[in-house]
Specification:
- This protein is mainly β.
- Among the domains are: 56 residues, Roll (SH3 type barrels), CATH 2.30.30; 89 residues, Immunoglobulin-like (Sandwich), CATH 2.60.40.
- The chain is built from one helix and 34 strands.
- Strands 2, 3, 5, 13, 16, 18, 19 and 20 form an eight-stranded mixed sheet that branches.
- The chain is elongated and about 105 Å long.
Length: 463
């Protein structure tokens, strides 16, 4: 067993820095939809018995410091404090840190000489008081200043520094868990439409703007909205160097199931490297020969006495997300981009539609665009409206002006006011009607090429 004691102490003096190597890292990433990712990294480092400053480099600049949880394995340890150091080395920051300290510098002459002095100012001009003579120089360029060392509390990469004590010499395991912002994922789909079937390809697209690269990581993407507490804005001093907090222990079990807690996860079956400021696409769905149904759809929820109105139909594609239909996979929210070949076998983009987290065995419905050959009109032929009463009759006249048969659907949403609703229609033969709920019915009309159809729909409401 090992013990970790969390104390709030000042950084220990005279303690050697021990760099935690990145080689041999076992890195796991779970990426969420809300611009957050959970990082779990395990490493090993050789330590001597006694006190150390363990430096873990490569922490993202967007890390949520309050979520950092280190666990030391393999021996008993004492953890005194944890620092997140993000004051990175740069010329301007080194100048600021060196004010009132001795530095070397080159003079402004054609043949500059190297002298030493006290740095008085870094901005807007670099000013130095030379040792011995007391002369004050204004340098032409900041690069004339020579530094003997990197100032304390500055580092080349954002890092975690643990002031800790090891009981003995040997290998110390580090299991680090934290949340970071700046990593997002989304799903994108490519649908190739054929005569009677379609092929569907799905891509997971990961964007990494967290500030670091993740090498050889096991990637899991979680579909669904994870509840998050609104974050309070933090205001920090301009000269702040690091944050130092005592961190509580947390239990974060590794997710192994594909569905849990109302979410659905997608584990990439191979390891990938995600570079900083990189977009990576990983294939996760490849379904062939999926049967689909195509139809035109019009939604009518307007029943005011304004005579005739044109009917327009959306081009819809619907298919069953079942194993029997070569599907049967939960589809996370994403955009489906649809393509189809013409008679000369050339591929064209025909439209795109967004899907919202569709579980297995639920139908997938996509809007391709406008159905060009489906036209028609609706005409209000009866309109009686008085106190607590309304009676409306509509004539629908639809036409297929194309060379292929069409299925057209008109979804009629009756106004929801009223206690007593009576509906009737003349829909028959190649027209059928389905009650979808108390206030909605759907007419389905099957039209051959160049065929038309006319029918009436009426509702009466007492309220």
């Amino acid at each position: 067993m090992h013990k970790i004691f969390y104390l709030t102490l000042l950084p220990l003096l005279g303690v050697a820095n021990v760099m935690v190597p990145s080689t041999g890292s076992d890195l796991k990433i779970t990426i969420y939809n809300n611009n957050k990712a959970f990082i779990n990294d395990t490493r090993e480092v050789e330590v001597q018995a006694g006190r150390h400053k363990l430096v873990y480099e490569g922490v993202p600049s967007s890390v949520i410091t309050e979520s950092v949880v280190p666990t030391f394995l393999g021996m008993q340890t004492n953890l005194y404090s944890q620092n997140y150091i993000y004051d990175l080395v740069s010329l301007s920051s080194m100048l600021e840190k060196s004010i009132d300290k001795e530095v070397a510098f080159y003079s402004n002459e054609k043949e500059p000489t190297l002298s030493k002095g006290i740095l008085l100012s870094a901005s807007p001009n670099v000013m130095i008081k030379e040792n011995g003579t007391g002369k004050i120089y204004t340098l032409n360029a900041a690069t004339q200043v020579i530094f003997d060392k990197v100032p304390e509390n500055m580092i080349t990469k954002p890092s975690l520094v643990w002031n800790m004590e090891a009981e003995k010499e040997g290998k110390l395991g580090i299991d680090l868990k934290y949340l970071t912002r700046g990593i997002t994922w989304k799903s994108d789909y490519v649908l190739n439409l054929k005569k009677e079937v379609l092929d569907l390809t799905g891509w997971i697209t990961v964007n990494n703007n967290s500030g670091v690269a993740y090498e050889n990581a096991q990637i899991t993407c979680l579909a669904g909205e994870v509840n998050a507490v609104p974050e309070r804005r933090m205001y920090e001093s301009k000269n702040a160097v690091y944050k130092e907090e005592a961190m509580p222990m947390m239990a974060m079990d590794e997710v192994k199931e594909e569905s849990f807690s109302g979410y659905h996860i997608y584990k990439i079956p191979f390891r990938e490297t995600i570079g900083n400021k990189e977009q990576k696409q990983i294939s996760f769905i490849d379904k062939k020969e999926v049967k689909y149904h195509q139809y035109g759809k019009n939604i009518n929820n307007y029943f005011e006495n304004y005579g005739e109105q044109k009917l327009h139909f959306s081009n819809m594609i619907e298919f069953e997300n079942k194993k029997e239909n070569n599907m049967g996979i939960s589809l996370p929210t994403g955009v489906v981009r649809m393509y189809q070949k013409d008679s000369s076998n050339e591929t064209h983009f025909i439209g795109e539609s967004r899907v919202q987290n569709i579980p297995e065995d639920e139908n997938v419905t996509l809007t391709v665009g406008t159905l060009f050959d489906a036209v028609g009109e609706k005409t209000i032929t009866k309109f009686k409206a008085k106190k607590h009463y309304r009676n409306v009759e509509t004539i629908y006249n639809v036409r297929n002006q194309g060379k292929e048969p069409l299925e057209l659907r008109i979804e009629e949403s009756i106004p929801t006011y009223g206690n007593d609703i009576t509906v009737k229609s003349s829909c028959k033969d190649n027209c059928s009607v389905k009650k979808k709920n108390a206030f909605m019915r759907e007419f389905t009309i099957l039209l051959k090429a160049k065929e038309s159809y006319k029918f009436t729909s009426e509702f009466e409401v007492n309220y």
